[in-house]
Amino acid sequence: MKADELEVLVNATDGHKEKQCQPFLDMAVPFLLPRTPEKVLTFGREEPNRAGSCDFIVSALYGSGANEERHAYIWEVKSPQTMIFEEDDSKERLRPTKGLVKAETQLGYYVEELRHSPSFRLKYGLGVYSEVIAAGIVIGRSDRACAPINGLTPDDQKAREQTALQIRRKLFYQAAGITLLTWNDLVRWIRFREK
C-alpha cells in the first residue's frame, strides 16, 4: 500500500525525506485541486524558473466551450521532518519556523515568475487568460507541528499547535486562497483512495 510507504517516510527520524516523499504527490493530484476539473491537463515536479525550482504543479481544465477555464496550481513542499512552528518569546504563542516562512516566500516568487513565462504556459496547456495560482504548502506533520515545549503536557502542546494552525489558516491563508497541508493529510487521503 502506497499510504503505508509514505507514512514510513513521514515518520522517519533519520534526516529530511522531502525528495523521497515528492513522488507521492502524483497520487494525490485530485486532492491538491480546489475543485473537480473536467480534465487534469498535466502535472509535474521540480519545474525550474528564474526564482528557483517549483516543487509541484498541476494544471486543470474546467468547463468547456465559451465557459472553458484553464488554471495551474503551484505547490511548495517541505519535508515531513520540517517543524511548522516554534515557541515564540512570549512562551504563550507559536510562530512560524524558518522552514514555513521559506515555503511561503518561495511560493509567492514562483507564482509571480511562472505567471509571466510563455514556455511554462505552453508546457502546462495554459492560454493567455489562464490563471497561475498559489495553491498551497505541504509541510511537516500534524502530530508534531512543533518541537516539544518544556512544561507543557502533550495535550496542552497539541492545543497550542492547533490554535497556531487555525490562526494562520484563517488570517493569512484563507484570504489568499492558499491551503496548508501536512504530510499526514496526504497519507490519509491516499489511504482512503486505496480502500
Strand order of the largest sheet: 1-2-3-6-7
- Following the backbone from N to C, one meets helices and strands in this order, namely HHEEEEEHHEHEH
Please report the number of helical segments: 6
Q: Give the name of the CATH architecture.
A: 3-Layer(aba) Sandwich
State the secondary-structure class: alpha/beta
Gyration radius (Cα, Å) is: 18 Å
Summarize the SSE layout with pairings:
Layout: H1 2-11, H2 18-21, E1 39-49, E2 52-62, E3 69-77, E4 85-87, E5 94-96, H3 98-115, H4 118-123, E6 131-138, H5 154-176, E7 179-181, H6 183-194
Parallel strand pairs: 3-6, 6-7
Antiparallel strand pairs: 1-2, 2-3, 4-5
Helix pairs in contact: 1-6
Walkthrough of the structure:
The chain is an alpha/beta fold and 195 residues long. It has one domain (2-83, 95-141, 178-194): Restriction Endonuclease. 37% of the residues lie in helices and 25% in strands. The chain is built from six helices and seven strands; from the N terminus they run H-H-E-E-E-E-E-H-H-E-H-E-H. It has helices at 2-11, 18-21, 98-115, 118-123, 154-176, 183-194; strands at residues 39-49, 52-62, 69-77, 85-87, 94-96, 131-138, 179-181. The strands form two sheets. It has a five-stranded mixed sheet with strand order 1-2-3-6-7. It has a two-stranded antiparallel sheet with strand order 4-5. Helix 1 (2-11) runs antiparallel to helix 6 (183-194). The longest helix is centred in the last third of the chain and has 23 residues, at 154-176. The N and C termini lie close together (10 Å).
